[in-house]
Amino acid sequence: MCGIVGYIGYKDTKDILLNGLAKLEYRGYDSAGMAVLDEETINLFKVKGRIAALRKRTEDTGLATMGIGHTRWATHGAPSADNAHPHQSASGRFTLVHNGVIENYQELKEDYLDGVAFGSETDTEVIVQLVETNYERYQDTAEAFRQTISLLRGSYAIGLIDREDHETIYVAKNKSPLLVGLGDGFNVVTSDAMATLKETDQYLEIFDQEIVLVSRHFVEVQKLSGTVVNRQPFTAQIDVSDTEKGTYPHFMLKEIDEQPFVMRRIIQEYQDERDRLKLDQDVRNAMKACDRIYIIAAGTSYHAGLVGKQFLEKMAGIPAEVHVASEFSYNMPLLSENPLFVFISQSGETADSRSVLVKIKEMGHQALTITNVPGSTLSREADFTLHLHAGPEIAVASTKAYTAQIAVLAILAVDTARAKGMKLDFDPLQELAIVANAMEVLTDQKETIEELVRDNLGTTRNAFFIGRSSDYFVCLEGALKLKEISYIQAEGFAGGELKHGTIALIEEGTPVIALATQENVNYSIRSNVQEVAARGANDMILSMKGLEQDTDAFVVPHVHELLTPLVSVVPMQLLAYYAALHRDCDVDKPRNLAKSVTVE
Ligand code: F6R
Q: SIS domain: which residues (predicted)?
């Protein structure tokens, strides 16, 4: 949540910041701002709304060669120009952007900032006011910054500029992501390398509780104690074209269409030259050694985890439980003797998941992260990582990461089964290749889905998704997709559960979308459809080839029974996409949401 870009060099800063912020808009888009330092002063611009509004607001700005920018997802204080970052100290000397939440901001305000006039309702403003107070005491910006940072409790990625210092951006980080990009005669600061790839592909990781002094010609990383740290940069492995929409109207549609390619890339990446599964031996050993798996995830990744549990239990014979990350600490289950924690996260930055990771590491347990971003916090802090290879996912609604997560979980389960000497009549690479072809057939049927939406979801205020067995998990995902981007109140239910209460909501014309891809429940789910149809529901059955009936609304190609979620979710994603389009919703940036949820 929230994105930060900073630049110090010799080029005009404004466009670099605006272009970077536009790439970070997926992290939050309720307000935006930037501060640029020209020869004389700091020019501050803040708007409620999108980067496009900020671009307009800064059209007439003169040349400046350093600055910081921010795109916000509000936590403390409503989205407004006043609450937008950057924030300034009372005298206007110090200007700061922040991503994260300062947990002790009220205490800090009371203890150190009595009498200071605040211009916003944010927790962030406390930090910049504290820098000024500390400057009065220490007469040194670096020291004032260090003293301030050592008082903060919570999560933060921070960039600070001082009107009297044209040579430094002061940077600090704890829990929230931040990188420093290295260039020749310039350096950048960014929440995500993707935002500044046009400038450089060389990046320095910053670890928690470190401070970094970023100048045009050097970067110095220090521990909070002042000790200087030497660190080698890494090369960001992102293709710039992967971060562009190309000819697509929306990133979401592009990412739905990319799913067959992602399946094929996963097959390639997890296969060795002798066509065997290729996984890190350490992961294999950890999987073999554990007696129970605890899957931790949020949202769509949680839904992928539900499917993954089936693989782990049915194929590898390991008991598995799936937990919503934000609830885990309150409802921690009794742990087995030798647990392995598996974190599933597209971004690798989800704060709810990270707080579980920190806790279980303190307890001495091992963790494996399955993520699309290998250098991310969850990846770095876990013992092992499996990469999704899905390419950057930019639309807020997750699509290709979900299917990639399921594919990698299938590979992990089969690899574990084989490592344990179990015989399986299932070749995941071959089956995933069949899935890739099926996905291609489905993404070619957009018009049929668009028509279904036009005829059935046009003006509805609610919709239900029902399914049994693994279809139920896909229904949860289908409902989440529909509600988050079209704002139709949608819920996914186990087919047998609807009659235990929710059927009361069925009225004449209520859309009920039923999934029927599992042979063993085909009869029972169709009976559930009869029950809702008898009460006036507008039912639509999405079935699989081989189980279909003439009246079914849509039939997906046949794939292995265990992998049906990978194909049945595609029409669900497209349903959500066209429903959102039909209602004129902002498909890629739905209201109130952000892609990377870095606050708890
Ligand atoms: C929904 C969606 C979210 C994320 C959730 C977890 O389309 O994208 O529900 O799945 O916020 O995010 P990650 O996977 O990055 O941990």
A: 283-427, 449-590
Rounded to an integer, what distance in angstroms lies between the CA atom of residue 162 and that of residue 384?
A: 40
Q: Is the peptide bond before 86 cis (omega within 30 degrees of 0)?
A: yes
Residue-range definition of the domain harbouring residue 409: 248-435
Kindly give the distance from the C-alpha atom of residue 595 to the centroid of ligand 1, in angstroms, as a whole number.
7
Report the pLDDT value the prediction gives residue 175, as an integer from 0 to 100. 85
Which residue's alpha carbon is at the smallest distance from atom 7 of ligand 1?
397
Pick from 256, 307, 398 the residue to mutate for probing ligand 1's pocket: most ligand atoms within 8 Å of its CB.
398
Looking at the structure, tell me whether residues 365 and 472 fall in a common domain. no
Residues lining ligand 1, Cβ inside 6 A = 298-301, 345-347, 350, 353, 397-398, 480, 484, 597
- Residues with catalytic roles: 2, 595
| Nearest one of 259, 261, 257 to 248, comparing CA atoms | 257
DSSP 208-221: TTEEEEE-SS-EEE
The two three-digit tokens of residue 183, written as one number: 């260039």
Alpha carbon distance 215, 162 (integer Å): 13
Final residue before a domain boundary, out of 435, 455, 483: 435
Distance 398 CA to ligand 1 centre (A): 6
Separation in Å, CA 207 to CA 159, 358, 380, 388, 397: 15, 14, 10, 23, 29
pLDDT of residue 111: 96
Q: Which helix (H) or strand (E) segment is 138 a member of?
A: helix 124-138
CATH of the domain at 471: 3.40.50.10490
Residue 429 half-sphere exposure, CB side, CA atoms within 13 Å?
14
Domain count, the chain: 3
Which of 199, 231, 246 is where one domain is finished? Answer: 246
Same domain for 462 and 585, yes or no, is yes
pLDDT tens, residue by residue, 307-327: 999 999 999 999 999 999 999
Looking at residue 159, its pLDDT comes to 98
Question: What is the tens place of the pLDDT at every residue in 410-434?
Answer: 999 999 999 999 999 999 999 999 9
How far, in Å, from the CA of 596 to the mean position of ligand 1?
Answer: 7
**Cβ within 8 Å of residue 184, ≥6 positions away:** none
**Cβ atoms 157, 167 nearer than 8 A:** no
From 300, 393, 396, 473, the mutation candidate for ligand 1 (largest count of ligand atoms within 8 A of CB) is: 300
Tell me: do 171 and 28 sit in the same domain.
yes
- By most ligand atoms within 8 Å of CB, the mutation choice from 350, 353, 354 for ligand 1 is 350
Residue 167 Cα to ligand 1 middle (Å) = 38
Domain annotation covers residue 600 = no
Reported as half-sphere exposure (CB side, CA atoms, 13 A), residue 474 has a value of 27
